[in-house]
Amino acid sequence: MYLHGTSKINDKGHLQIGGRDATELVQQFGTPLYVMDEALIRQRCREFVDAFRASGLKFQVAYASKAFCVMAMCRIVEEEGLSLDVVSDGELYTALQAGFPAERIHFHGNNKTPYEIAMAIDEQIGCFVVDNLVELHMLNAIASEKRQKVNVLFRITPGVEAHTHEYISTGQNDSKFGFDLDNGSAYQAVQEVLQLSNIQLLGVHSHIGSQIFEVEGFQLAVDKVIGFAAKVRDELGFIFSVINLGGGFGIRYVEGDTPLPVASYVQAITESIKTNFSQYDYPTPEIWIEPGRSIVGDSGTTLYTVGTYKDIPGIRKYVAVDGGMTDNPRPALYDSRYEAILANRANEPVEEVVSIAGKCCESGDMLIWDVELPKVNTGDILAVTCTGAYNYSMASNYNRIRRPAVLFVKDGEADIVVKRETYDDIVGNDLVPSRMKQVSKTV
Ligand SMILES: Cc1ncc(COP(=O)(O)O)c(C=O)c1O
Ligand SMILES: N[C@@H](CCCC[NH3+])C(=O)O
């Protein structure tokens, strides 16, 4: 079993994360429980920053907060000197509440509302990543009402297909995101923005997809971007000072996943930028990237308690846990694969192959198909690894299941950073119309 970061098996044969025995965490905090290895998150942040420093280029590493956005995470990102990419007023609000400096925030999204735009301008965020012409003109109008000039990047779709699941692949021409490069919309957008007095264009942004294991897609995107940059310089006389190459760097979820070290992705990108821009005699721009999954993904472990067990002889053994697609929708959405161990008997030999079912009323609520484990019993603690990205942030209350707590562990300390939801959280926004009988009942 591959263990990430500070995770290891301790003398009692229990999984330990951040110096804390997982079975003791469960006794104290209950299950399901998201446990985040803070040291590993910080290590990943530093790997990106160090790799860029080594390149000698000017850079910003903006953590894509959609992967996991809570106030404590924003604090870490701030402390590690990264910028932050937000994609909604909720993420922006979380960052601001955490004291994240507004000038290091970049606002993304293909349908920003006028309210979100106004809020972000009032807070003086660093940059908008503009997705389309409707947004561009709305942004200019709101900025001019407020007598502000705002920095923007244009999100372009470079026509590069990343080798990943089609739902998380975004760089191809047929995408809901961004200005198409090949059909001329990106060029038209630059022509238009140069006429707008309340917008300062910094450069362009390209994000080709997520969970990518190769560097070729990023290099191809750089090829496309430099071609575009040169055309804009030669025909419109405008120089891009920033190129943002998005996120998408893959991580190891299961055996057979072959991500590159962070430094290799960064080196491929920075080398490609240096070579391409010097070939065109173009001033080397500042490079921004937006990793999400690769910062937090492998630091997360979800702990569950095993409940029921169903053996269909000759077909399958189902082991059900007290969570499922509500805390981790990725297997249901993308056929994502995960690994698991028994946290309370982590050193015992494999005895059976079982499939891990969630507790939702949904046949598709399966967390893992066919995982090898010791003989599983009711009450065992199952640990699913690599759940730090797009798990808590995509969790739901389907079946009115309360969302789990999130715990940060580091050097033997364990701190709740998101409380487990209560029944009051579940019904807190419900209202019963006055024409119906009003009852107040405490369970
Ligand atoms: C624009 C943009 N930037 C960054 C990311 C982060 O991607 P990842 O978590 O794969 O690094 C995404 C999500 O795929 C995105 O859409
Ligand atoms: N939510 C996706 C990736 C994010 C896509 C955002 N552009 C996943 O879990 O893999």
In short:
It is built from twelve helices and 21 strands. The protein has 443 residues and is α/β, with parallel strands linked by helices.
Provide a descriptive summary of the structure in words:
Helices cover 29% and strands 24% of the residues. Strands 4, 14, 15, 16, 17, 18, 19, 20 and 21 form a nine-stranded mixed sheet that branches. α2 runs parallel beside α9 and α5 crosses α6. The two termini are 42 Å apart. Bound molecules: pyridoxal-5'-phosphate and lysine. Pyridoxal-5'-phosphate binds next to α10.
What is the terminal-to-terminal distance?
A: 42 Å
Helix segment count? 12
Bound molecules: pyridoxal-5'-phosphate, lysine
What is the count of β-strands?
21
Oligomerization status of the protein chains: single chain
Low-confidence stretches: none
Q: How do the strands and helices of this protein lay out in sequence?
A:
Elements: E1 8-9, E2 15-17, E3 20-21, H1 22-29, E4 33-37, H2 38-55, E5 59-64, H3 71-79, E6 83-86, H4 89-97, E7 105-107, H5 114-122, E8 127-130, H6 133-145, E9 150-157, E10 179-180, H7 185-193, E11 199-205, H8 216-236, E12 242-244, H9 262-279, E13 286-289, H10 293-296, E14 300-312, E15 316-321, H11 330-334, E16 340-342, E17 352-357, E18 366-373, E19 381-385, E20 405-410, E21 413-418, H12 423-427
The chain binds pyridoxal-5'-phosphate and lysine.
Pyridoxal-5'-phosphate binds at residues 64, 67, 85, 108, 170, 207, 210, 246-249, 290-294.
